[in-house]
Amino acid sequence: MKPDPALERYLKEAVSWDLDRASQTRRSERTAWWVAGAGWLCAVASGVSLAFLTPLKGVEPFVIRVDNATGIVDVVPVYAGRAPMDQAVTRYFLTHYITVCERFNIVTAESDYQECGAFHTAQRNQAWYALWNTTNPRSPLNVHKDGSSIRAEVESVSFFRRSNGVEDLAQVRYRKSEHPTGGAAEHTTHWIATIQYVYTSPSKDAAVRRWNPLGFKIVELGSEPEVIAPTAAPSGAAFAGSVQ
Question: Reduced to 3 states, what is the DSSP secondary structure of residue 83?
């Protein structure tokens, strides 16, 4: 039987078409695998990136300061509790603490109590609560329930260095002026406070941070009265007075 050239050509074209189709299918499968692999690689990379970014996510409180004279608004830089503090900053905190926490006025008593608590360690706050508790006869709320008030004014702040080189002690000299009720004369006493302090990480509580943005803490405080000897008048001044 003589082969038909047209039939053979048709069969060859059919075989070629089938081979092309199979080759295209294999190429499509390889492309699909490459796309799937790239997709999985992107997903894994995204997950790893999010895992590294998680510690960076969080709510950071900040303090906004408004100038009373100009009205200019700026953001106070956030302190993380690691950089050393200059003595001028510590002096300010010690002065502010003594001025607020050693005074008493029934109008500001509640606010002063809360503000002083922002500067205390947990142990110091327990002692602070016990002092102000109304069951304590020496509580300022009981001592000054007659309406009297006390004003505290710092006179000097001195810093001390320990033998190991640590500077965490200060001595604050201040005077307390008591204003009795009924128009009686003001009574002034002099005091010395020995204070151990430390800088810790600032509180995350916005109410505490507005009073104490740098994490300044009073660890221990001991206060005792200071006896001021009366100053004698110079003899020259007395003689001049007698001449007149």
Answer: coil
pLDDT in tens, 151-176: 999 999 999 988 888 888 999 999 99
Beta-strand (E) ranges in the chain?
63-66, 73-76, 149-160, 169-179, 187-199, 216-226
Helices 109-117 and 87-101: crossing angle in degrees, nearest 10, is 140
Same domain flag for 221 and 152: yes
Q: What is the DSSP letter of 132?
A: H
Same domain, 88 and 200: yes
Q: What pLDDT was estimated at residue 116?
A: 95
Main-chain phi, psi angles of 191, to 5 degrees: -135, 155
Q: What's the pLDDT tens digit per position in 76-94?
A: 555 555 545 688 899 999 9
Both 46 and 137 in one domain: the answer is no
Name the stretches of the chain with pLDDT < 70.
1-8, 10-15, 18-20, 53-63, 65, 67-85, 228-244
pLDDT value of residue 103: 94
What span, in angstroms and rounded, lies between the C-alpha atoms of 173 and 224?
Answer: 10
Give the C-alpha separation, 204 to 143, whole Å.
35
Query: In the structure encoding, which two tokens stand for residue 151, read together?
Result: 């004003």
- Number of domains comprising the chain: 2
Distance CA 44, CA 1 (A): 66
* Measured distance CA(41)–CA(224) in Å, rounded: 70
Question: Does residue 119 form part of some domain?
Answer: yes
Pick the closest to residue 95 from 152, 160, 167 (CA basis): 152
HSE-up of residue 173 (Cα within 13 Å, Cβ side): 9
**Whether residue 134 is found in the same domain as residue 176:** yes
Distance CA 68, CA 75 (A): 15
